Amino acid sequence: MAEDTNPNNKRKTNQSEPNSNNSGIINISNLVTKADPNLLLDKKQLIMALRNDFSEGIKQIAIKAAIKIIRDTWKQPERAEDEAYVEEVATQIVESFTTELKNNTELESTNDNVLDKAIPVAEPQLKPIVPMPSSAVMFSSMEAYTRKDLWQKDTEGIACLQHRAKGNPNNYIEHYICSPGDITMLPWDEAQQIIDKFGFTTAKLHLIFAAHAMNQENPWQTTFNLKASDIIQEFGWDKNHEKVKPEKLLEIASTAFALDCLLVKAVWVEGRNKKGEIIGSAPVGRMWNVQIKATGQFNLSGKIDNPDEVYITIQPGLWTQDFLNRAGAKSREALYQFGYLAQQVLKIDPYHDELALRLAIYLTLDSRVRLDGKYRVIELLEIAFPKTVIDKARLDRRRAYDLKQRWDSAMKLLLKLGWQIVFDPETYPEWLRPDSLDKKPKGYLDKLLRAKLTIKPPAPIPELIASKAKPKVERLQSKVKPKVKRLQSKAKVTPPQNTDLTSSQVREARIAKGWAQAKLAGYLGVSQKLISLIERGERTVNPQLAAQIRTLLALKS
User: Fold this and answer.
1) 312, 253 contact by CB (below 8 A)
2) Is the dihedral of CA 246, 129, 411, 372 positive or negative?
3) 312 membership: H or E segment, kind and range
């Protein structure tokens, strides 16, 4: 029998073989498994296009799928260049989809299952006040993101930022830069390209990651997903109409990739007691392991230029096992240190209010450590800026004026946002304060730098921190030997304070504050249902929760 030399006939012969791997008969399941599964991500638009007599959009998708099948599945790269052949296969793909759409009533539910598996389930947006890790690693990583001047080249030419504890120089944390997918420390020149991408957007996204990590029982073993569109709202970017949404989504994705490049190494020991020291040391590893998934329309190159959404999958690094370990802290084998973040901090615009944002981030972390909130102005400025900025301002009148203006603007904004600021009357006189229009005498900058003030985050963060610290103080007091009691007169002994709370007390105090049950529950980190049960008298309150409720609602013992 003579050999058929017509290549089209050969192709048709191959198509007639049902078990052939090169089968050209394509149905919906074949396309999902053999072609690009991302083609089904935008299922609704795909079905709409099919129902509208095969618009140009569905033809382009079919052509892309045809080229992929011919080249990769059928192993015929030369035929993928034949436009007529590609057009014919694309027509088969369209007909396959059409048949499935008309005859298979389960198409949409099937696609729903594919879509559900493809789209990650995202965490809810942050509440107005959320717990926030505040260990030394958080302080050092913030320096890494916002103080590029602190990065140095070590003796081996590697880019490194080192943060040493003020009270114990033997405790230190080091940060390095790596490439995505690798933990090899990059040399200075290569690392600088990534360091240059760091900034306040990176720092803010880092805070969001950390706040969500607080919700994980064992963060070093789990992953969570965030939607970039939620982050846009948390940053306040939804109010900015200069950029379209896809641009904002891509900027969030780019920032997340930068976070994936920061390494951390910790050598940290805290406390001494009968059970020994708490060692919070972590080997070199990533701060965050990040993966990005964009959804939207693919172009002919198989890329998404204008995403509809970006999903970020985050796995916290191993540092959380030593510094964010609830169970480990109870057994004194790890640390679990946290404060609270006011979500409004994320909305501060670094372009117009850089100093206010720097101070808000630092004070958010430091509020757990410095409960009294007392600082000198120079201390806060040296945290925010390189020392050379302050030194130059001391020598130049114009720079002194600019520095004072920036400081005053930062104080005004923080006051507007509800931060609690009290100027020391002795060292911070009226004429030196932000709203004063008085002419400043010679040497006013040095006077400002020496001035004292008390600055705390917005309510109820100080109360939440105090309620968290109160049970610890009470436990310490209970361990002290009752030596003082023996010296006191028995007649002066007072009965122990009653920590019981009645349902009506909680309800009336909450209403007096103007808070909904959900708001009180959010501050306490419990469910709204629990608050409802407590107020109906159907649930008793343990001493620790009672102390927190009393502090938040200003109830006397």
Assistant:
1) yes
2) negative
3) strand 309-316
Three-state SS at 265: strand
- Angle, helices 397-416/350-366, rounded to nearest 10 degrees: 70
Report the top-level CATH class of 498-557.
Answer: mainly alpha
Locus of tokens 């720097």: 358
Q: In sequence order, what DSSP letters do the residues of 346-387 get, joined into one string?
A: GG--HHHHHHHHHHHHHHHHHTTT-TT-EEEHHHHHHHHS-H
What integer pLDDT is reported at residue 33 of this predicted model? 35
Question: Which of 47-61, 110-124, 125-139, 322-336 reaches the highest mean pLDDT?
Answer: 125-139
Which tokens in the block code for residue 473?
A: 């103080």
500: left (phi over 0), alpha (psi -120 to 50) or beta: beta
Residues across the chain = 557
- Residue 547 and residue 471 in contact, taking contact as beta carbons nearer than 8 Å: yes
Q: Do the beta carbons of residue 458 and residue 417 sit within 8 Å? A: yes
The 10s digit of each residue's pLDDT in 386-423 is: 999 999 999 999 999 999 999 999 999 999 999 999 99
Candidates 4, 29, 14, 16; CA nearest to 76 is 14
Residue 501: CB partners within 8 Å, gap ≥ 6? 534, 541, 546, 549, 550, 555
Q: What is the DSSP letter of 457?
A: P
Phi, psi (rounded to 5 degrees) for 226: -125, 145
List the alpha helices (DSSP H) in 260-349.
319-323, 326-330
The CA distance from 53 to 98, in Å, is 10
Q: Is the peptide bond before 457 cis (omega within 30 degrees of 0)?
A: no
Tokens linked to 93: 């793909």
Question: β-strands 282-286, 374-376: how paired?
Answer: unpaired
Residue 109: which pLDDT band, with cuts at 50, 70 and 90? very low
Q: At what angle do helices 517-524 and 503-513 cross, to 10 degrees?
A: 100
What is the spatial distance between Cα 400 and Cα 473, in angstroms, rounded to a whole number? 44
8 A C-beta contact, residue 159 and residue 169: no
* C-alpha to C-alpha distance for 97 and 31, rounded to whole angstroms: 9
- Angstrom distance (rounded) from CA 358 to CA 450: 20
Q: Any idea which residue has 């048949």 for tokens? A: 99
Domain segments of the chain: what residues? 7-118, 129-345, 374-456, 498-557
- Phi/psi for 227 (5° steps) reads -95, 130
User: Residue 92: is it exposed, middle or buried by C-beta count within 10 angstroms (0-12/13-18/19+)?
Assistant: middle
Q: How far apart are CA 64 and CA 307, in angstroms?
A: 19
Q: What is the dihedral of CA 394, 398, 403, 407, to 10 degrees?
A: 120
Q: Convert the pLDDT of each residue in 134-144 to its tens digit.
A: 999 999 999 99
User: Which pTM was predicted?
Assistant: 0.71
The full DSSP string for 481-514 is -THHHHHS-GGGPPPPPP----HHHHHHHHHHHT
Amino acid at 244: V
Rg (CA), the chain: 31
Residue type, 246: P
Q: Look at residue 279 and give its three-state secondary structure.
A: strand
